[in-house]
């Protein structure tokens, strides 16, 4: 099955009818069956937030939760937790309402550009997998050393052997901070995240980097290429989760809907469309 959605539900104005009393999440899930929760990356959310999200979404709706940045090394150890074990335990406890409801498809661990292919970092991945025992987890790299000619097959073998979900990335190809598109998947699931192909924006580290990093709109030819890739993955994997993250200019929702139309998908169990006042 192909699950098409977006990263986050708050920044897609084309999805929300003016004058409705529904929340943005309630409006979102009348369009898509899955979403990535990215607020969990910036701070470990209180349990009540997840309980609210469970209650606001249909039974068939699913979440991909982005792991807290302290757990992936983005904070370089500068956290308020006594140790890393406490951090993991707090995070896992926080998402319990999603886990109990069956609405948590996986937790995404996206590692920073400086997380390279070393023995030390491989052990960190093993520690992470152990701490997340029983919870489905996906792995996304940003350092190309994991997919060099001499490491690519070893990396894929490690991901499969250790029980991670492989994340396929569509992103600008730069010397640092990005990985190649590795069309591989197995078992129950594979995750695809489309960040756009704006190289200049991807390399922008200025004060307005969020406004340009994923500023890109996929055209019909590029989406059709992805349609062909999905057909290949569907032969290997039970569930393909595709998330559009090209939203610096608000293009993600439109591109996701284009992809749904191209695949002739019709999702059952979505929330009813919210209508405005007029």
TrEMBL record:
Domain of life: Bacteria
PANTHER family: UNCHARACTERIZED PROTEIN YECE, UPF0759 PROTEIN YUNF
UniProt-recorded name of the protein: DUF72 domain-containing protein
